[in-house]
Specification:
Strand order of the largest sheet: 2-1-5-4-3
Distance between the termini: 129 Å
Radius of gyration: 48 Å
Helix content: 40-55%
Shape: elongated
Number of helices: 23
Oligomer: single chain
CATH architecture of the largest domain: 3-Layer(aba) Sandwich
Number of domains: 4
Number of strands: 21
CATH superfamily of the largest domain: P-loop containing nucleotide triphosphate hydrolases
Structural class: alpha/beta
CATH class of the largest domain: Alpha Beta
Largest sheet: 5 strands, antiparallel
């Protein structure tokens, strides 16, 4: 072989070695690098000129080719990590004329391949999970490609149609499933959800969803939501029954534990009343204590019920306590409850107090201004600590209640006289709602009269439909010291006097004291009438007596003892007459 031809052959060999993607390194029998191709440069990040002539051990801190030279044994399938990259190599000794003259390594960077393998493994797991879900789901599922040919047909659909997947794959879906529109959805790209489809005599509820890839429809998935429309009807019927039962039980909870009234029961369009209602609705959404102020008979308890009904505690208990009606000696046990044996005549096993009964709901303390001073201090502690102990017990009960208090008394004046604790007042008076007296909202009297008539007709079984306009004017001219309670009393009496003879309440049905009263010439209780012959002596006497009692109570600040002394009768006699005429000053 000539020198030129030999050189050409060597150049050709180097060109081949440098063109291969794999890295190739050769060393002599002393471990000096004699060959380092372009593939090795790219994989290892070392230039050929920097590698040639160098000891292989100086470049790589891994088992070197020198070990292959020394052993003369091939090393196949070795994996090493060089510069953070995973290298897979085969090493072979090089012989010439039977003598070992070096070694060669052919290697490949498998970092990307291993990453791809891991990703493929994850993808395979995901596919297997998806396959399992599709095969175990109750719903029938079918998948088609962009030509409408079946690519997936799950077990539920196979069982329903009696067709095995192997017999369906690759076939146009319209040849396998009757009345299908899957091939149309693939063409239009528009989903169809909640459609009906008749298959083997069954009305099915189905959905058909196109599958997009790079904004192009590549297939569609179909799913049977219900095997038969009867299933839908059955489910709707069950849901309807459950809804009715829930509504019934909610109603029972409200009836047994909750409030009896809501804001719809508060009638009136006057500015003062509307403002009070709006403030009460805002207060209902908070958790702060509420103090309702208003004269006797204005409807403080009605507002308390409505606030509870509008709050998040509407399904909790609404517990009412009239602080003026319960004797001071019993009020503590009523509020706090007691353990068995706490005192003489204590119920065996004890009794929960109103605080406990109101857990999760609302406690309404009516006539809070009449609470004894010693109880005021104990109530203050409960409000501060949000916990209570039963009388005779040592167990602390954490409270979760909403407190609403009400009074018709001047608490600020009571504080000055040291009859009411100032610190308790501030605890109660976080949100204050003032209910206007009836004399300040006379424009609402007509509406109120209509509402009261409806209630009375239902309660008494009567059919009085309206109030004569002349009567409305009379009602508006009166100042109503008894407020709403007195108005209802007057209308109930009018309905009773009417006795079903007339569908309208007229002047002749009203009590004497409302008719032709000359307030500039007479004192309360001494009335003059234009037509006294229309009324009996008994009616005149009773009306005068009722007016005198109400006047005495008003002038004495609802102090029954002083009112009885003013009227010159015994206190028990006053109670009897108040009960007779329906005079109630507790609200």
């Amino acid at each position: 072989m000539t020198a030129n031809r030999k050189n050409c052959s060597i150049e050709h060999l180097y060109a081949v070695l440098n063109s291969t993607h794999n890295g190739i390194i050769a060393v002599d029998n002393e471990g000096v690098i004699t060959l380092f191709n372009k593939g090795a440069e790219k994989i290892l990040g070392i230039a050929t000129k920097d590698a040639l002539g160098q000891k292989v051990d100086a470049l790589f801190k891994v088992p070197s080719l020198l070990s292959t030279v020394q052993s003369g044994v091939p090393d196949v399938g070795r994996r090493v990590v060089i510069n953070g990259r995973s290298i897979y190599s085969n090493r072979s000794p090089v012989y010439k004329n039977g003598a070992l003259i070096g070694a060669v390594a052919i290697f490949q960077d498998t970092t990307d391949i291993e990453k791809l393998a891991r990703e493929l493994a994850v993808a395979k797991d995901s596919v297997e999970i998806l396959e399992t879900i599709l095969e175990t789901t109750y719903d029938g599922i079918v998948v088609v490609d962009k030509e409408g040919k079946i690519t997936k047909f799950n077990k539920a659909y196979q069982n329903f149609l009696g067709i095995e997947e192997k017999d369906a794959l690759g076939k146009p879906i319209q040849d396998v499933i009757e009345n299908t529109r899957m091939h149309i959805v693939v063409k239009t790209g528009k989903p169809e959800i909640g459609e009906t489809q008749k298959i083997q005599g069954h009305e099915m509820v189905v959905m058909r969803i196109p599958i997009y890839k790079n904004r192009e429809v590549v297939g569609a998935v179909g799913k049977v939501l219900f095997r038969d429309v009867k299933e839908v009807r059955s489910m709707v019927e069950r849901l309807d029954i459950a809804t009715k039962e829930l509504k019934y039980y909610k109603g029972e909870v409200m009836r047994l534990k909750g409030s009896r009234y809501n804001f719809k029961n508060i009638i009136g369009n006057s500015q003062a009343l509307v403002q009070a209602k709006e403030l009460a609705k805002m207060a209902a959404s908070s958790m702060s204590n509420i103090l309702i102020r208003g004269e006797s008979g204005t409807g403080k308890e009605l507002f308390a019920h409505a606030i509870h009904d509008c709050s998040l505690r509407r399904y909790g208990a609404f517990i009412r306590v009239n602080c003026a009606a319960i004797p001071a000696g019993l009020l503590e046990s009523e509020l706090f409850g007691y353990e068995g044996g706490a005192f003489t005549d204590a119920k065996k096993g004890g009794k929960p107090g109103k605080f406990e009964l109101a857990q999760g709901g609302t406690l309404f303390l009516d006539e809070i201004g009449d609470m004894p001073p010693e109880m005021q201090a104990k109530l203050l502690r409960v409000l501060q600590e949000k916990e209570v102990e039963r009388l005779g017990g040592d167990r602390v009960i954490q409270l979760d209640i909403r407190l609403i208090a009400a009074t018709n008394r001047d608490l600020e004046e009571m504080i000055k006289k040291e009859e009411f604790r100032q610190d308790l007042y501030y605890r109660l008076n976080v949100l204050k709602i003032i209910i206007p007296p009836l004399r300040e909202i006379k424009e609402d009297i007509e509406l109120l009269g209509e509402k009261i008539l409806l209630e009375l007709n239902e309660e008494l079984g009567t059919s009085v439909k309206k109030v004569d306009p002349d009567v409305i004017e009379i009602l508006k001219a009166y100042d109503w010291p008894g407020n709403m309670r007195e108005l209802k009393n007057v209308l109930e009496r009018a309905v009773a006097v009417n006795m079903g003879k007339d569908s309208t309440i007229r002047r002749s049905h009203l009590p004497i004291y409302l008719l032709d009263l000359d307030k500039t010439k007479t004192e309360p209780g001494f009335l003059e009438f234009k037509n006294p012959d229309e009324f009996s002596l008994r009616e005149i006497l009773e009306s005068t007596e009722k007016t005198a009692i109400e006047s005495a109570l008003k002038k004495t600040g609802n102090n029954r003892k002083k009112a009885a002394e003013r009227l010159g009768i015994h206190r028990s006699g006053l109670y009897q007459k108040m009960n007779k005429y329906g005079i109630d000053i507790d609200n």
